[in-house]
Write a structure and sequence with these properties.
homodimer, 153 residues, three-stranded antiparallel sheet, 3 strands, DNA-binding
Chain lengths: 153, 153
DNA sequence: CCCAGCTATATAGTTCGGCTATATACTTGA
DNA sequence: TCAAGTATATAGCCGAACTATATAGCTGGG
């Protein structure tokens, strides 16, 4: 009954390898030198709203110093801006700017175009499966989850 | 009528972000310092058989010098070995060792365990979708494809 | 009301993966 | 047999992300 030998191995590790390859394909195809962490962070700011640096670092899964530096670059490029946290003057709230949203959208278009050959000629059924798989993955990797089960580091 | 707002945007770029997050989650959860390129390369050697350095570099989507260096480390750890190419003394054939296969398997188990919480409590239907999605992705990111449409660099 | 201890961000310094440019060794065809 | 091309190796650089630590601000018990 089971002619799908590939199913013999659980999917998580196969998914990781495939994800890895996809990431590599996209990076090479777009030729973008911008680190993935930038797009990860911007998309988190877009969906989760403004956040403190520490919290953004946690959700983006990098350390706080890494995020501080990342933020500095993004601020220079005016893709994000800092709002003083009135309740705590040590902290900043980081928010995405319209320019940041535009950059994110442009990147998405670029990635979409770069991956077009890879996903060329998918059947309607295959597209449907990928669409639904993405939805599941998005739900399962939701950034808000990180906050509750942190303490990893 | 359309409550699936997420479907409004095509999946490739969403898939990239999700893939990226998964990679990050896996990397953090395993705490592995081993670069992804190692596992990518080893799994290519496992599925595609022994390859020249240049060809392995292409399929692993790194440059040749990067692969040369990577190979040196893997050889020291005895995860791969070099076979002199009888037809061309400039070239080497790189092959995975039993120890390399074992390391790859161990990593897979580790990643599987690390991602278990992320994929906990999936319904049978969701699992089915992910399984099939992985199969599609594997097919679409197959390394042998790279060789034919290279010339990117 | 003030200081010890905690928390939020910033800075310093290191490590390491991956890249480009180039050298070296070998092959091949005219 | 040698010029041009190809396969791998070496050198040097860049930058992302880490750990350790400094600085500044908050907060509660005495």
């Amino acid at each position: 009954m089971n002619s799908h030998l590939s199913s013999a191995r659980p999917f998580p590790e196969r998914l990781i390898v495939a994800a890895n390859r996809l990431t590599r394909i996209a990076a090479l195809a777009t030729g973008s030198t911008t680190p993935a962490s930038v797009w990860r962070s911007l998309s988190i700011l877009e969906t989760d709203g403004s956040l403190r640096i520490g919290e953004l670092a946690r959700r983006s899964r990098v350390t706080q110093p890494t995020m501080t530096k990342l933020i500095q670059g993004l601020a220079e490029d005016e893709l994000i801006y800092r709002i003083a946290d009135v309740a705590d003057s040590r902290a900043w709230l980081i928010a995405i700017t319209p320019k940041g949203t535009a950059a994110l959208d442009a990147w998405r278009v670029e990635v979409g175009a770069a991956l077009a050959p890879t996903f060329e000629g998918l059947s309607a059924e295959e597209s449907e499966i990928l669409e639904r798989a993405v939805a599941i993955l998005e739900e399962r990797t939701e950034t808000a989850r990180v906050a509750t089960r942190d303490e990893v580091a």
